Structures are given as C-alpha cells and as structure tokens.
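Lecture notes, part 5. Sequence design as translation. It can be helpful to think of inverse folding as translation between two languages: the language of shapes and the language of residues. The source text, in structure tokens, appears below.
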C-alpha cells in the first residue's frame, strides 16, 4: 500500500454513483418498453412522434450508460424485451390517458435525474453525463408540455389576479 499508485479521481466511483448508474440504466430499459406500448396504442400522430423521439433519446442514453457501467465493471441491469407486441384492440387505452401518463413520466424522469445528480460527487465525468441527461430531460418535458397544451391535454388551472395590499 505504501508504494501503490492511487487511481485518478475520474476512475473512482462511490457506491451511490454505482447504484445511480445501475438504477438509471434499469429505469431507462423499463421506460423504453413502456413507451413502445404507449406508441402502439396511441392514435394521435404527433403524440406517437413525441413518444418515438423520447424512445430514441433514451436508447442513445442507454448506450452511454452501458459504456459507463462496463468501464467500472458493474454488472449490467436486466434488459427488458427489445420490442413489444400488443393485441390488436387499440381502444383499451385512450390518447388522453396516454398523454397524462407520458406527462407524469416526463416529470418523474427529471426528478429522478436530479436526485442522481445530487449524490454523484466523486466522479466528475459521471456527474457531467448526468447533468447532460438532466438538460435533455428538461427539454423533452418542455416539448411534451407545449404539445399537450396545444391539443388541450393540459388544462389551465384557475388564475387569480394579484392583489396588492398597502
């Protein structure tokens, strides 16, 4: 130990970061599978395109995360099925329901990434990657909100005028 060269900080990974890396990889696998189901049931063409865009982004993120996990020798998270076949009856799920589920997913994805970012303190490269994911997730969520507002899936809540008291 006396003459052992310590690893560079970039090559270190604390247990929190290892857990975060594994968790986000597993979450992304599950999210892709769920979104494939949503896309199969959606009727709204623009909603399908948005879901497809999310899937494409998550699949790109999965490749980056798998590369990071391999770099640190982490056991891979179990992959889900690569494609999802659904029954022909597409009236089981309505677009309104899918849009709301998708909206909740987008919000929770941002929250999850922020939690991971908060506890990623040892490995600067991993923190930088998570920061990139946060920015992308915010952009995706914003695109979804804009689309849902346009098609009337996000209702405007009651508005109150500001009251100034002197």
């Amino acid at each position: 130990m006396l003459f052992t060269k310590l690893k560079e900080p970039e090559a270190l990974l604390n247990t929190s970061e290892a857990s975060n890396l594994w968790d986000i990889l597993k979450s992304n696998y599950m999210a892709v599978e769920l979104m494939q189901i949503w896309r199969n049931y959606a009727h709204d063409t623009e909603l399908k395109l948005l879901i497809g865009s999310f899937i494409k982004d998550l699949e790109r993120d999965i490749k980056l995360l798998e590369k990071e996990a391999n770099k640190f020798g982490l056991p891979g998270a179990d992959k889900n099925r690569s494609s999802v076949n659904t029954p022909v009856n597409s009236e089981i799920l309505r677009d309104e329901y899918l849009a709301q589920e998708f909206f909740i997913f987008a919000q929770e994805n941002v929250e999850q990434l922020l939690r991971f970012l908060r506890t990623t303190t040892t490995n600067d490269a991993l923190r930088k990657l998570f920061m990139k994911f946060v920015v992308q997730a915010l952009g995706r969520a914003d695109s979804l909100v804009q689309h849902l507002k346009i098609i009337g899936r996000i209702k405007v809540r009651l508005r109150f005028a500001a009251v100034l008291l002197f």
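The translated text above is only one of many valid answers, since several sequences can fold into similar shapes. The chain has four helices and no strands.
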